[in-house]
Amino acid sequence: MQKxxxxxxxxxxxxMMTKKTLAQYGVNFEEHNVQEEPAxxxxxKALGFQAVPVIVAEGFEPVQGFRPDFLKNLAKETx
Length: 79
What we know:
The chain is an alpha+beta fold. It is built from 3 helices and 4 strands. The termini are close together.
């Protein structure tokens, strides 16, 4: 199974929808909250993003925002 990481922050609707959608598809992921983990924000910036959610998955380019199309493709690849 490939590793999926989701960078989030508190009270972020797009973050909540991303996590909910991944859970509905049965995709296991590791969450890092940029407000609670300073290193997580550094990781997001190192990827070239300034906002969350950011989804990082092996074999895919990192993406930012709630992207149902990307999440569906990701789920297909992890099955």
